[in-house]
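Team,

Forwarding the record for the chain on the shared tracking sheet. I've put the sequence and predicted structure together so nobody has to dig through attachments.
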Amino acid sequence: MNSVHYPAEKLVGLLQHQKIATMPQLKAALGTSVTYTVLRKLSPLGYRSSYSHGGTYYTLDGIAQYDELGLWSHHHVHFSRQGTLLNTAQALVRQSAAGYLVPELEAVVHVAAKDALRQLVQAGRLFRREWEGRYLYCALERARRQEQWAARQAQQESADDLPAAKALFYSLLDEQQRRLYAGLESLQCGYGGQQRAAQRFGLDVDTVARGQRELLSGQVLRERVRQPGGGRSAVEKKRRKS
């Protein structure tokens, strides 16, 4: 009985074209309905599944352009050299200079990370300690987490005047600049950042979201505060009749 041949080149061609693909797309390209067959063909190629979107997307290490943290994103789908979100969160926390608060890590990985951090602590893979009413996640190794704790304290001492400085800076901005600044702050806050920025600056969430979109797309008006046609209509100057 002749065995069916499934050429791995079809998977490579699809991924080189799309960068990422779902399992149904990979099955269709290979001509099989069996997940194991696809994974068996991907294995020697060095593949990764996404840590976002429930791991439903796949790519090849040769395609992913990982940054210095070992992370790569394509069309809002996120991948890591470490594979899963659990392994990624552990590696990022261990190598961080001052540990991570939940919003800080979420701003890096762009997905909700609170539950993953909780699981890592419960499994004895990370250590957490209360910091100003929130948990600071640090490396499990005692010497390393002591270094991270000391670095966090040093950061706090140098940042005591930061909120007042931000408030002063914000008050000097025009309408567009305030929207963009709030959008930037929301990106730095990570998951739920738009709501936090809206509350901090007294803006609508939609306004913060608009500023975020403008920053990410680069569609910023460099010469105007409002869009052309915005603001009050010009008043026609009339001459007195003699």
